[in-house]
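ok trying this again, last paste got cut off
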Amino acid sequence: MHMADALLSPQVGVGMYAASVAAIAVATAKIKKDDFGESKVPLMAVSGAMVFAAQMINFTIPGTGSSGHIGGGILLAALLGPFAGLLALSAVLVIQCLVFADGGLLALGCNIFNMGVIPCLFIYPLLFRPILSPSPTAKRIWIGSTAGVVAALQLGAFGVVAETTASGVAALPFSAFVVLMQPIHLAIGVIEGIVTAAILNFVYAARPSILTSAAYGSGAPVLRGHAPDRGRAKSPKTVIIVFACIAVILGAAMSLFASANPDGLEWSMERVAGTTELETGESTVFSIVSGVQDRTAILPDYDFAKGDGTGTSAAGLIGAILVFAIAGAAGLVIRVYKKRRRKNIDAI
């Protein structure tokens, strides 16, 4: 569901940048105030890397000729909390855009909003977390994951249609575009919901406090009387190591077997406009952002310059490492800030 620049007018693109930057600023401010333990820094880094690698795996939607990949917003919010989840997913989308030319640079604000802000800041607190209350169980995780992911993808897909319509893209009229975008992303959402639930149930079985602290913070009243970790709970290092292994396997090996079918957005575009790629306007803005992206994208389309598919594994590993570094650095900076702030308060 990564939008290209051709789907947007400069006005809509800039407006969505403002909305996404504002959401990221709010998320950063919230994390600075709330509890953000040292254990969340490596989890933030490795879960972001895992989502990047997972997004490289397009799975076929049977009977449609389309494919989809996970968005990861609900998954990251459930693991890290909604605000840290948004930062981790934003790191994924920025790396995809700048290094791999996946999604347009002008459209980056839209992609962060549709795939990050909607699931992390709206669907997670309003739908996913209430389903898990008063404390998670395997059944609630399955229900919450499926319902949350489906709702997030439906709103995200509608956001793509609305932003394209607001941009005046005549080749994609609202009624024809929306009637294809919503059903195909419903199918994608069901599959992603199952994957999300399986991962979260593993985490809850291994280390229950990861999900409960992400949902309620430490010592939240709703968790009184509920043991954060059962007696045989595994070390958080176990979860981190498993996620790291998943990221490596997905990025280096499984990405080679991704479906070649167009994703849900491209599939919808092809049926409405007859093509998966529209031409950008003649605005100077398009020229500038295209030039910047051409210079930064060292592995366009997740491949070497010759484009014969031999660079897919390298792209998966490089991207996962970059996301790991950026998401981890963001978490570390916030952690250091909180420590210094606490020392200053204690010194007063």
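PB: full thing came through this time. The first strand starts at residue 59 and ends at 61.
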